[in-house]
Please model this.
Amino acid sequence: MSSMRLSDEHLTYLLFLLRNSSKPMTTDDLVRALRERLSR
Amino acid sequence: MQTAEVASNPQFAGTDDEQRMAAEIFQALRAMGRLFPRSAPIRGPLAALAEYYAARHTERSAEEWSAEIDRVLSMNPAVFHREESDDRVVFSTTAEGRAPTFEPEVDEAHMLKRRFQEPVPLPEQPAAFEPRRRPEVVADEVPGEPVGAVTAEAEPAAEQEPAAVAPEPTAEQEPAAVAPEPEVVSVAAEALSDEALAALDDAALADLIRRELRQDLSVANFGDLWMAEEKVPRLSRGELRRIREYLLERGEPLADDTLAQDALGASPSASDYELTRFALNFRLLREHREFEFVGTPDQRLWTTTGLPTIGTTKRKASEIGSDYRFLLDYAGQVVERAEPVAEHVLTFYEYNLGVLPYDATFASLFPPPMVPDQRAAVLVFESPQTFETFLVELRYPTANRGGYLAGFERFFSENLVPGALITIERNGNSGRYLIEYLPVSGEDRKLLYLDEKKGRYVFRPTTFYCATQENMLLTENRFPRLANQAPLEERIRRRPEEVLAVTFERIGEADGGRYMAMLDDLLAVANIERPMTAELIRDIVRSPEHPQFTEDPDVEDVFYYQPSTTD
Model:
């Protein structure tokens, strides 16, 4: 597990979400958003 | 100012003719190097010297003079240096008339011109260290391509899948290739493909996200909340001062909500309230000197320097932590419990100082540290039986001190006795707990106390109204010899095995020079001086390091202590 990491594309997406959010996001919010993106 | 050149005329060997020839050639060479330093070599090829000489002395040709000059100059090695290179002869001398001394060759390897020509290769990056590439996030880069771009990205990712799998077979082939590479110890983290990521469960994905974002300095994090650091409002000096003054005024740790509303004037109904609260938590976390986070995920409390301490004043917090150090050795056995309830029997030590151990039982009930390096958490305890609420400080374990909870001193002394059975239950929130005991009709016993004025243990008639565990009750009937005993010195108290030895002497049955005692008795009485668990006592007795203690081979939990004869 510790040898895994997010790809730059996914990390970029998370950072994008954080930068465009006016409120702090929970880890669950980020998990949901990433899952939604993966399902598209 | 003019400087006169000091001309030196060397002496030459040979006949007059030979001396004249040598002198003439010397003058010619010196004329060539008239601007040279006095000791710098002036070089002249033999052929050139012969031509020069033949031009002035035409009776012979240059070739004919050449052999003669070579012979004559070679007769004067003190003046001329002869060297042969590439089939030609070169003579050299200096302006001062001595054969030049050739200095040892200068190592130019480290000279600047060489260094510029051949730059030193960069040291290799260690394989384990992989600098995290910060993806350039531009606000309108990703959103501009809502659906189309995402699907377009998905395809190449799918195409890359075989390539991502490709290294595995090679890794499998390697053992077969006879030359294994054991030196490759650290493996760089592997970026997960879309498929691998989708296969992770929510908890694993959340862990991965937490780990990734914590490395990124541009991301602000507090607990389970994340935000871009640059978008988190900063607290002004005045705001920090107001928060601190408000904490001091109220005299106890306060929740982030209270501080945001009362000290910063934020309204809970405002649209940016959550942001204000996050900013308060995130920014205060960086003000280590004045503020300290002592909260839990559900109750984010803050304290400041100068607030009254929670816990006993009878013993220093660091000393209690050292007393509980042995808990670090028994820490790995945290039990997951179905219900957030824990039962505990109070020991004399716990009762006296108003503390409870942060042992495996309680570690499963109380929250772990919420922020890195969190020293303590302040928990709210409610007693529904006495209608009181009080604050308890949970001190987390450190590298060399055990964890414990402090702040029960008054509650214990007003309601309980050593040996009482208590129940602690989470009250729907990781920061709030209920403490209860089983009420019973009054019971009168003569129980052990520490008379602090006299510095002696005494038995006093006591009426108590709580259920107790008989084997932990310190009554006069059980341990009459404890009366008027003095508490142990600090240096003995620090060592569990010495406390155990003294306990044997205090309560054990003398049996031919040795003492015999049962575990229950040892446990109850050893805890007068310092916290000790049944496991710790068993381990000390069984340890080969302490041969003075032995176990009864036939009866379980009956132990012996043989005092050293040299004492």
